TrEMBL record:
Keyword entries, A-Z: Metal-binding, Oxidoreductase, Zinc
Family matches, as SMART domains: PKS_ER (SM00829)
Family: Belongs to the zinc-containing alcohol dehydrogenase family.
Domain (Enoyl reductase (ER)) ranges: 13-348
SUPFAM superfamilies the UniProt entry points to: GroES-like, NAD(P)-binding Rossmann-fold domains
Signal sequence residues: none
Matching InterPro entries: ADH-like_C, ADH-like_N, ADH_Zn_CS, CAD-like, ER, GroES-like_sf, NAD(P)-bd_dom_sf
Coiled coil: none
A GO MF label: oxidoreductase activity, acting on the CH-OH group of donors, NAD or NADP as acceptor
Pfam name, any one: ADH_zinc_N
UniProt protein name: Enoyl reductase (ER) domain-containing protein
Species this chain originates from: Mucor saturninus
Cofactors (names): Zn(2+)
Length: 350
C-alpha cells in the first residue's frame, strides 16, 4: 500500500520532436523493491533527443525522458538495504531487468536477454510505464540505484550515470597499460569528454579525434595529449599504426572503417558506443584481418562497474564540464543541445 503521494510532475514528451509539456503523471506501483527520489538533477544525453525524435523506434508518449538522475531518497521498500531515506542516490539509463536470464545471473543485467527496462519508455511487469528524470520525483527498482559519493556534488554526479558509465566500463575492460596504451577518442561530446578523462586517468596517452577543428584547444585542456582533426590528412598520417584502442562516441555518416583501422596497431581494439540513426557501413574483410582488429561494442555498464566508476571518479577527480539549466527551462536546453552548444553536458536542476 502506498503512503506517499503517487503523482509526480514532469516535463513530458508528447509528440515526436515537439517541445515538452508540463503535466502530472502517476508513479509506478509501489512494492518491496521500490525506492523513491526527490529529483534534484538530471543530465541531458543525446539518447534523450534521439528518443524524443523517435530516431531508433517509436516512443510510448507521453514519455518522460532523462536518464542521468540524482536525487534525495524519500522512501524505501522493505528489500532496500544499500540506501536510506536522506541519502543522495542516482540512476542511469537502466531501471530494471529480469534477474534470471544468463546475463542477469552473470552480473551483467545491462545485457539482460529477457526484460531490459529502459529508464524511460519501457513497462514494468504490471504494465506501468517507466518514467525518467525530467520531473520532480522518480520511483523505480532499488537494484539500479547507487549512492552518490559524499565528496561529489549532485550536479556533477548526475552525468556519471550515463555518459560516465558508458565510457568508463569499456575502457576499464580494455586492458589499458599505463605508459604503453595509446587511446583515440572519437567524438568530443558528452560521452567523449568523459572518455578522455577516464583514459588519461587509466594511464594511457590520449588522442582526441574530432570533426570540429575548433575543439583542438578544448580537447587539449580536457587532457588529450594530441588531436586528430577528421578533415586533416596529415594529422591522421601521424598516427598511422599508432593507436592501441579507439573508443567511438560519435562520428559523421560518411564514416569509413578503413580510415580508423589504419590508425590502429596490430591486434588493436575498435570499441563502439555510438548509436547513430543510420546503419554502420560495410567493411572490407582484409582491413579487418590484416591487423587482427577487434571490433566490439559496449552498453552502459554493470551495477558493479557503476560502483567502481563512482569510486574511481571520486578518487581521480574526474570532473564533467557542465552547464546547468532550471528544469523548467528543459525546452531551451534541448534547443541549445540541438544547436551543438553543449560543452560538454547540460544538467537540469530542480
Ligand atoms: N552505448 C551506450 O550504452 C550508450 C549510452 C549513452 C549514449 N549512447 C550514444 O552515444 C552517442 C554520443 O552521445 P553524447 O551524449 O555524447 O552525444 P554528443 O554530446 O552529441 O556528442 C557526440 C559527438 O559525436 C560527434 N558527432 C556526432 N554526430 C556527428 C555528425 N553527424 N557529424 C559529425 N560529428 C558528429 C561530435 O563530436 P566531434 O565534433 O568532436 O566530432 C559530437 O560532439 C549517442 O549516439 C548516444 O545515443 C550510447
Ligand atoms: Zn544516455
Ligand atoms: Zn535478464
Amino acid at each position: 500500500m502506498s503512503t506517499s503521494n503517487d503523482n509526480f510532475t514532469a516535463w513530458a514528451g508528447v509528440q515526436r520532436g515537439k517541445p515538452f509539456t508540463k503535466m502530472e503523471l502517476k508513479l509506478k506501483e509501489w512494492d518491496a523493491d521500490s525506492i523513491e527520489l526527490n529529483i534534484t538533477h538530471c543530465g541531458l544525453c543525446a539518447s534523450d533527443v534521439h528518443a524524443l525524435d523517435e530516431d531508433w523506434f517509436p516512443s510510448d508518449f507521453p514519455c518522460v525522458f532523462g536518464h542521468e538522475i540524482v536525487g534525495t531518497v524519500t522512501r524505501i521498500g522493505e528489500n532496500v538495504k544499500h540506501l536510506k531515506v536522506g541519502d543522495r542516490a542516482g540512476v542511469g539509463a537502466q531501471s530494471g531487468s529480469c534477474h534470471q536470464c544468463e546475463a542477469c545471473l552473470d552480473g551483467q543485467p545491462n545485457l539482460c536477454l529477457e526484460d531490459y527496462l529502459y529508464t524511460f519508455g519501457s513497462r514494468w511487469p504490471n504494465g506501468d510505464k517507466t518514467y525518467g528524470g525530467f520531473a520532480d520525483k522518480w520511483r523505480g527498482d532499488h537494484r539500479f540505484t547507487f549512492k552518490v559519493p559524499d565528496d561529489m556534488t549532485s550536479e556533477i554526479a548526475a552525468t556519471f550515470f550515463c555518459a560516465g558509465i558508458t565510457t568508463f566500463a569499456p575502457l576499464r575492460r580494455a586492458n589499458i597499460i599505463p605508459g604503453e596504451s595509446v587511446v583515440g577518442i572519437m567524438g568530443i561530446g558528452g560521452l567523449g569528454h568523459f572518455a578522455v578523462q577516464f583514459a588519461k586517468a587509466l594511464g594511457a596517452k590520449v588522442i582526441g579525434i574530432s570533426h570540429n577543428e575548433s575543439k583542438r584547444d578544448i580537447a587539449l585542456e580536457l587532457g588529450c595529449d594530441d588531436y586528430i582533426s577528421v578533415n586533416d590528412k596529415e594529422s591522421f598520417d601521424k598516427y598511422n599504426n599508432g593507436l592501441t584502442h579507439i573508443l567511438c562516441t560519435g562520428t559523421s555518416s560518411d564514416f569509413a572503417w578503413h580510415t580508423y583501422f589504419a590508425l590502429l596497431k596490430i591486434n588493436g581494439h575498435f570499441i563502439n558506443v555510438f548509436s547513430p540513426t543510420w546503419d554502420l557501413p560495410g567493411m572490407n574483410s582484409f582491413t579487418l584481418f590484416n591487423k587482427q582488429i577487434k571490433v566490439y561494442a559496449s552498453k552502459i555498464g554493470t551495477p558493479k562497474e557503476m560502483e567502481d566508476m563512482l569510486a574511481f571518479a571520486a578518487e581521480n577527480k574526474i570532473k564533467p564540464w557542465i552547464t546547468t539549466y532550471k528544469m523548467d527551462d528543459v525546452n531551451k536546453a534541448i534547443e541549445d543541445f540541438r544547436a551543438g552548444k553543449a560543452r560538454f553536458r547540460f544538467v537540469l536542476e530542480n
